[in-house]
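Design request, C-alpha cells follow.
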C-alpha cells in the first residue's frame, strides 16, 4: 500500500458539564484526529489526552508535538500497514500512548476500509451490541448526585459508576442504595486512598458493589493485593493497568479481580487486545474504559469491546452524554435497554463529519508522502 498523506487536526469541543474526578476537572474536550490516506482509501484515528496534566502525563500540546515532530515523519519514512507490526514499531518509542493510539487507530480504520471489513472483525471480535454504563463525576451535593443517577437509569444505562474521594464515599453509596435499591453500582476512587483507609473499604464492602475501581496509587500493586484479600467486592485496576508488563505484574500479585482496559493508555488497539487476551487467560474479566473520548476513539472502543472477555458494561456512553456536539455521523446512541449497537459497514461504521472538524479545529498540519 502507498501512503499519500497524513493530516493532523487538533479540535476542541465543549462539555455539557465539567468532568470532575478526585484530582482535577476539565470543561472542554481536546482531541487530535489523525487522518491517513493510502490507495484512495481513508482512515481516522483519535488521540485524546486531557488538557492540564491531572489525568495523565500526556497533554494535547505534548501529544501534538510528538505526533508532528517525531511519530508521523518517522512513520512516513517507512510506513507499515500491518497493524501488528505497526504496534511493535510504536512500542519502540518511549511513552506517548495517546499519540500512538491516534496513529494506530487511523491505520486500523484504513486497513478495515481497504479490506471492506468491519473493524470488530479485523480485531477478532463479534457482531454484538455493547452494554453501556454511565459514569458520574464528583457532584457538589448528594442531591445533585441522586438526580444524575435517576436521569441515567431512566435513559437505560446498564450500571452506574460514581467517583469517590476520601470524605465523600460511604455516604454517597448509602444514599444511592437507600433511594434506588439494588441497582448495578460501582465506585471509582482514581487512586485517592491508601491502606490507612482500610476501614472505609470495609464499610463499602457491605453494599454489594460490582467493583471498587482503583482504590490505591498506580504503583501500589502489593497493597492492592493485600486489600483485595480482605474484601469480597472485586477490586478493578484502571490506572495501574497501564501496560502489558504492568498487567502481568497485577495478575501475578493478585491485585484485583477485574481490569479496565483503555485504548488510549495502552497505546493502541493491538496492545489493548493483548491486554484482553492476557486477562482472559488468567480468568480476569475486563471492560473497555474511556478517557472519555470523542466519536472516533469511542467508536473504535466499541469494536474492541466485542472481544469475548469484555464481559462487563463499558464506560462508552452516548455522544450526547458529555459533548455539546460530536464529529461522527450517526452519533453514538444507546437503546432504552442500555446497549449500543454497532452501525455495520466497513471500518468503524461511523462517518467522520468534515464540516464539524473544520468548525471545531484549532490547528491543522498536513504531511505528504
Ligand atoms: Mg477509572
Amino acid at each position: 500500500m502507498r501512503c499519500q498523506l497524513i493530516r493532523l487536526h487538533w479540535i476542541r469541543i465543549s462539555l455539557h458539564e465539567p468532568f470532575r474526578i478526585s484530582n482535577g476537572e476539565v470543561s472542554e474536550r481536546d482531541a487530535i484526529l489523525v487522518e491517513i490516506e493510502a490507495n484512495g482509501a481513508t482512515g481516522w484515528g483519535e488521540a485524546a489526552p486531557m488538557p492540564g496534566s491531572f489525568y495523565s502525563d500526556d497533554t494535547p500540546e505534548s501529544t501534538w508535538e510528538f505526533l508532528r515532530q517525531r511519530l508521523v515523519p518517522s512513520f512516513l519514512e517507512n510506513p507499515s500497514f500491518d497493524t501488528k507490526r505497526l504496534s511493535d514499531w510504536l512500542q519502540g518509542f518511549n511513552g506517548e500512548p495517546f499519540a500512538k493510539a491516534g496513529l494506530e487507530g487511523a491505520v486500523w480504520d484504513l486497513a478495515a476500509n481497504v479490506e471492506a471489513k468491519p473493524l470488530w472483525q479485523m480485531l477478532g471480535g463479534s457482531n454484538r451490541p455493547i452494554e453501556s454504563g454511565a459514569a458520574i463525576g464528583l457532584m457538589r451535593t448528594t442531591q445533585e448526585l441522586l438526580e444524575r443517577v435517576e436521569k441515567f437509569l431512566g435513559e437505560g444505562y446498564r450500571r452506574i459508576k460514581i467517583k469517590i474521594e476520601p470524605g465523600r464515599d460511604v455516604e454517597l453509596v448509602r444514599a444511592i442504595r437507600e433511594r434506588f435499591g439494588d441497582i448495578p453500582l460501582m465506585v471509582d476512587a482514581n487512586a485517592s486512598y491508601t491502606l490507612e483507609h482500610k476501614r472505609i473499604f470495609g464499610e463499602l464492602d457491605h453494599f454489594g458493589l460490582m467493583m471498587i475501581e482503583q482504590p490505591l496509587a498506580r504503583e501500589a500493586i502489593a497493597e492492592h493485593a493485600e486489600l483485595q484479600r480482605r474484601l469480597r467486592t472485586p477490586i478493578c485496576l484502571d490506572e495501574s493497568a497501564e501496560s502489558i508488563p504492568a498487567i502481568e505484574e497485577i495478575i501475578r500479585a493478585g491485585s484485583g479481580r477485574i481490569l479496565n482496559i483503555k485504548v488510549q493508555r495502552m497505546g493502541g488497539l493491538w496492545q489493548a487486545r493483548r491486554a484482553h487476551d492476557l486477562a482472559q487467560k488468567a480468568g480476569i474479566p475486563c471492560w473497555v474504559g474511556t478517557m472519555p473520548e470523542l466519536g472516533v476513539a469511542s467508536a473504535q472502543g466499541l469494536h474492541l469491546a466485542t472481544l469475548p472477555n469484555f464481559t462487563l458494561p463499558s464506560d462508552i456512553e452516548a455522544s450526547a452524554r458529555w459533548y455539546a456536539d460530536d464529529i461522527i455521523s450517526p452519533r453514538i446512541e444507546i437503546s432504552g435497554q442500555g446497549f449500543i449497537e454497532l452501525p455495520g459497514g466497513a471500518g468503524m461504521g461511523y462517518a467522520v463529519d468534515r464540516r464539524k472538524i473544520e468548525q471545531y479545529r484549532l490547528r491543522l498540519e498536513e504531511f505528504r508522502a
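Comment from the thread starter after seeing the answer: thanks! The mean pLDDT is 95.
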